[in-house]
C-alpha cells in the first residue's frame, strides 16, 4: 500500500495494527529526490518580497513564534518574564501582535499559566522524556498528563529515534497514539529530531508515521542536537502534510525548530510554506517557529519598517 492508494480514513486506521502493514506502507512512500529537494529549497530561499508584504510577513511570523526556554537553569521568574513578553512583545507598540505560544518544561507550566491565562497565547510543554525520548511509556504518559493538568494546551513530544531507526515503527506509532490520548483536549506536536534520522526518506516516513498516529503537528527538532531545522527538511515535511490532507481530509501543522534566528530566514520559511503546502498553512494554527532569539530580530525589523529607525538588539528584552 502506498500513499496514492489511500482512499479514506478507514484505510489509515488499519495501518497501525500490524508492523508488517505499517512497514509496507512507509517503505512504499515515494523516495525523496535529495538533489531536487535541496535545489527547490535553495530557489525558494532566494525569493524577495515587497515592503508592504514584508510588514505583513513579519507580523505573521511573530504570531507564529513558540517563544521557548528549555534550559536546566530555568526559574519561575524567567518563565514569568518570558510569558509577559509573549503577550506584549513590544510594550511600546500595542499594535504588535502576541506570539503563538510559550514553550517550557512541565515543571515551569504553572508559572507560565499565571501570566498567559486569557491572553490568547497558547502554553506548550515538552514532555515524554524530552529530548532523548528514552523512557518507559508509562513515564511518558505521566509526564504528559502532568503538563496538561498544570495548564498546558499543547504538548511537544519527542519520538524514540532508536526505535524508529531500528524499524520498530509499530512501537513508535503506539507511543504516539498513547500520548495523544493522554493529551485530552491539548494538541500534540510530534518532534521527529530530523537531524538524527540520517536521510530525507526517513524524514518523510517519520512525518507520515506521526500523522497516522494522530499528531496534530509535526516538528523538526528538539533544538538540543547540532543539526536542527533546515529548509529542505521543512519542505519535505510540508509536502507530507499537503499529501496527507489530500489523502485523508485532515490538516496537520508543521513546526521547524532550532537555528532560525533572523527575519530573513523566517521569511524564507513562509515563502516555502506558501509555495509547497499552500495558503491554508499560513496561519499560527498550522505553522509555528520554535525559537528563542528569532522574536527580537522580528521586533527590530518591525520597528525599522514602522518608524524608519533601526533599534539595536538591546532595545528589546533578552529571551
UniProtKB/TrEMBL annotation:
Query: Per UniProt, what is one Pfam family of this protein?
Result: DeoC
Per its UniProt entry, which superkingdom is the organism in? Bacteria
Q: Which SUPFAM superfamilies match?
A: Aldolase
Q: Is Lyase one of the keywords?
A: yes
GO molecular function, one example?
deoxyribose-phosphate aldolase activity
Query: Could you tell me which InterPro entries the record lists for this protein?
Result: Aldolase_TIM, DeoC, DeoC/FbaB/LacD_aldolase
What pathway does this protein act in? Carbohydrate degradation; 2-deoxy-D-ribose 1-phosphate degradation; D-glyceraldehyde 3-phosphate and acetaldehyde from 2-deoxy-alpha-D-ribose 1-phosphate: step 2/2
EC class of the enzyme, as a word: lyase
Task: State which Enzyme Commission number(s) the record gives.
Answer: 4.1.2.4
Give the UniProt keywords, A-Z.
Lyase, Schiff base
Catalytic activity, reaction form: 2-deoxy-D-ribose 5-phosphate = D-glyceraldehyde 3-phosphate + acetaldehyde
| Entry annotated with the keyword Lyase | yes
* NCBIfam families assigned: deoC
Q: Which family does it belong to?
A: Belongs to the DeoC/FbaB aldolase family. DeoC type 2 subfamily.
Q: What is this protein called?
A: Deoxyribose-phosphate aldolase
Species for this entry? Plantactinospora siamensis
Amino acid at each position: 500500500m502506498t500513499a496514492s492508494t489511500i482512499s479514506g480514513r478507514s484505510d489509515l486506521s488499519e495501518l497501525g495494527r500490524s508492523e508488517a502493514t505499517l512497514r509496507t506502507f512507509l517503505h512504499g512512500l515515494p523516495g525523496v529526490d535529495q538533489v531536487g529537494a535541496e535545489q527547490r529549497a535553495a530557489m525558494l530561499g532566494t525569493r524577495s518580497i515587497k515592503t508592504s508584504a514584508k510588514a505583513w510577513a513579519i507580523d505573521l511570523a511573530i504570531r507564529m513564534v513558540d517563544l521557548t526556554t528549555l534550559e536546566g537553569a530555568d526559574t519561575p521568574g524567567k518563565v514569568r518574564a518570558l510569558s509577559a513578553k509573549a503577550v506584549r512583545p513590544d510594550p511600546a507598540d500595542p499594535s504588535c501582535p502576541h506570539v503563538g505560544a510559550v514553550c517550557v518544561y512541565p515543571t515551569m507550566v504553572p508559572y507560565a499559566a499565571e501570566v498567559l491565562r486569557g491572553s490568547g497565547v497558547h502554553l506548550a510543554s515538552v514532555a515524554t522524556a524530552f529530548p532523548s525520548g528514552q523512557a518507559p511509556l508509562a513515564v511518558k504518559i505521566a509526564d504528559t498528563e502532568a503538563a496538561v493538568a498544570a495548564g498546558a494546551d499543547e504538548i511537544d513530544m519527542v519520538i524514540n529515534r532508536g526505535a524508529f531507526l531500528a524499524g520498530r515503527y509499530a512501537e513508535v506509532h503506539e507511543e504516539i497514539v498513547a500520548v495523544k490520548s493522554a493529551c485530552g483536549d491539548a494538541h500534540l506536536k510530534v518532534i521527529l529530531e530530523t537531524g538524527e534520522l540520517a536521510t530525507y526518506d526517513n524524514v518523510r516516513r517519520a512525518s507520515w508515521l506521526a500523522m497516522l498516529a494522530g499528531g496534530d503537528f509535526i516538528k523538526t527538532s528538539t533544538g538540543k542536537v547540532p543539526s536542527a531545522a533546515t529548509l529542505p527538511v521543512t519542505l519535505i515535511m510540508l509536502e507530507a502534510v499537503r499529501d496527507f490532507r489530500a489523502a485523508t481530509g485532515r490538516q496537520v501543522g508543521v513546526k521547524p525548530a532550532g537555528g532560525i534566528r533572523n527575519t530573513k530566514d523566517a521569511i524564507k520559511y513562509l515563502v516555502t510554506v506558501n509555495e509547497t503546502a499552500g495558503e491554508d498553512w499560513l496561519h499560527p494554527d498550522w505553522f509555528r517557529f520554535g525559537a528563542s532569539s528569532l522574536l527580537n530580530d522580528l521586533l527590530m525589523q518591525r520597528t525599522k519598517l514602522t518608524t524608519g529607525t533601526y533599534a539595536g538588539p538591546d532595545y528589546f528584552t533578552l529571551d
